[in-house]
Amino acid sequence: MRIKILGSAAGGGFPQWNCNCRNCSGFRRGNFQGAARTQTQIAFTVDEKFWFLVHASLDLRAQILNTPELSPPISEPTGSPIGGVFLPSADVDAVAGLLHLREFQPFFIFATSSLQRILKKENRIFHVLDRAEPPVEWQTLAARGRLGCHFSQNPGEAPAFVCGTFPLGDTYPDYVSQEMVRTLIPDEANIGFSFEHGNKKVVIVPSLSGHNPEWTKQVVGADIVLIDGTFWCDDELRRTGRSEKTAREIGHLPLSGTNGLLEQFPRNSHGRRILVHINNTNPILDQGSSEHRAVLDAGYEIAYDGMELELR
Ligand SMILES: [Zn+2]
User: Which helix (H) or strand (E) is 24 found in, with range?
Assistant: First the structure.
């Protein structure tokens, strides 16, 4: 399995257009030790032919153009190696990029039934995806489940990879009406993924609220874990003047502090741990910061745009 991190920042990217925090202003002045980042977008392949996306970021068009593997096959007048998109939640960060994929291209969208209802019933703009012939095909994921993904029509053949799902939290984005939320399944609000191919397993959790501890079982035994590195501390948005809300209040377990991610991450997990979805305010983006050093010393890697991972 080969994984490419096309984008590694949280919503807004880094630097963020309207933010003058220490990171963003330092970057603009040219005295920041660290790279710009687009919004979190992950792509993987198990056969070097078909690629699957996790998230559909607002930067998706540029991210695809920057990734030669995702160009249309040379032999075809039209088409894409992108076979499908896995959506973890209905967050704007995670779904808005579907609109970049509206150019009459059939592909699969994997999402929980609650998420599908949000996108199809309340946000009819996503119906532009149905103009493809054949239209995009929605595949329903359970909050807890295992789905074998087949590339061939032959029912006797083993799946190319298996997608496992597990619930991460019960909060729907605030743009979803309360009336709609009352009809949705709480566990389907935000799910994590495990992708298994051969005897290798990658776990992807771009947004971790900490409201549900099931993720801790999933990361044990994974060869690679891509996990929520949005905020360093719980009051980061207040400290940087961005918002009065805490990291936890907006659905992200901070990295540091009591019961933060670094403290909660299971000690018996031995795979690579890579932080994704990093907010522009997060001091770990600054390679000269003590926080950057602290996450590296704790055994984590910090994802960057263009990072490639290989599992053999
Ligand atoms: Zn900023």
Answer: helix 22-29
What's the CA-to-centroid distance between 121 and ligand 1, angstroms? 34
Q: How far is the CA of 296 from the centre of ligand 1 (A)?
A: 22
What is the distance between the alpha carbons of residues 88 and 56, in angstroms, rounded to a whole number?
10
Give residue 274 CA to ligand 1 midpoint distance, Å: 21
pTM reported for the whole predicted model: 0.96
pLDDT band at 221 (very low <50, low <70, confident <90, very high): very high
Query: Ligand 1: distance of its center to the CA of 303 in Å?
Result: 18
Q: What's the CA-to-centroid distance between 87 and ligand 1, angstroms? A: 26
CA of 242 to the centre of ligand 1 (A): 8
Percent of the chain residues past pLDDT 70, beyond the cut: 100
Instruction: Residue 250: name the closest of 258, 264, 259, 238 by CA.
Output: 238
CA of 230 from ligand 1 middle (Å) equals: 12
Beta strands in 99-160 (DSSP E): 108-112, 137-141, 145-149
Give the pLDDT score at 75.
87
Distance 16 CA to ligand 1 centre (A): 6
Q: What is the pLDDT of residues 189-217, one digit of tens each?
A: 999 999 999 999 999 999 999 999 999 99
Q: Could you report how far apart the first and last alpha carbons of the chain are, in Å?
A: 7
Ligand 1 centre from 190 Cα, in Å?
25
199 burial type by CB count under 10 A (0-12 exposed, 13-18 middle, 19+ buried) = exposed
Residue 65 CA to residue 60 CA, distance in Å, equals 9
Beta bridge partners of 14: 37
| Cα gap 186→184, rounded to integer Å | 6
pLDDT of residue 78: 85
- Per-residue pLDDT, averaged over 119-137, amounts to 92
Query: What is the structure's pLDDT at 93?
Result: 93
